[in-house]
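Folded chain entry —
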Amino acid sequence: MSLTIATVGDNCMDVYENIGKAFPGGNPVNVAVYIQRMGGKASYTGVIGSDAYGQQLLSAVRDKGVDVSHVRVVEGTTAITHVELIDGERVMGEYEEGVLADFVLTPEEIDYLGSQALVVSALWGNCHPYFPAIREKGAKIAYDAATRPESETAQAAIPYTNYLFYSAESDTPALREQMAAFHAQGPELVVATLGEHGSLAFDGETYTAHGITPCPVVDTMGAGDSYIAGFLLGLMRGETLSACMQCGADNAAVTIGYFGAW
């Protein structure tokens, strides 16, 4: 079985119209780029539009060393998130789904993903209907439910997820109860990222808390995706849970030290 970490699902261009710039992103894309940055091997499976933004995204991801041989270009527009910088703060605006609105995985793509050691996807990619088939072929699945782990989409994905990630505000008894409930649905590990408060992991028996890696904060875009990439690469390399959490924190610290996701 391949040791590539295969990411699949959504992508987008973050378009900052008030400064005239656009940056590629999307959870699976970001995770793939960060894995490559740390010396791992990653692929991205998804669709982009036939427009200039699609070519910009594809070129940027390829230049980072990510395997993009499973990216399809289809007629239409690439997904766009409109972003504004107001007094130095990033304000997220309208999201245009573009060709991702009709994205479905082909049987060949399911076979490819199922042959990998680990497949990473996220809430907005809507790939959860394919998780049972991917798992059946032998791959493990990591899934980022973002801030909506109780949504209908996330709840459909969680039973077929090995490593569940989501975002919360702080370590509370209510959060720990929620994590235990999610773990009971099937995941081996449940990890909550807590921003400046670090992260919390639950393996079914023990809660493990971990702090952040201190660093100057330039831009928090991509911090959560960086943590997930670092954590999963540590896991693939056989690190302990605490070491995986440290890998995630260290990688997030690199990302928030510069402007943009990558």
Q: What stands out?
A: Residues 138 and 245 are 25 Å apart (CA to CA).
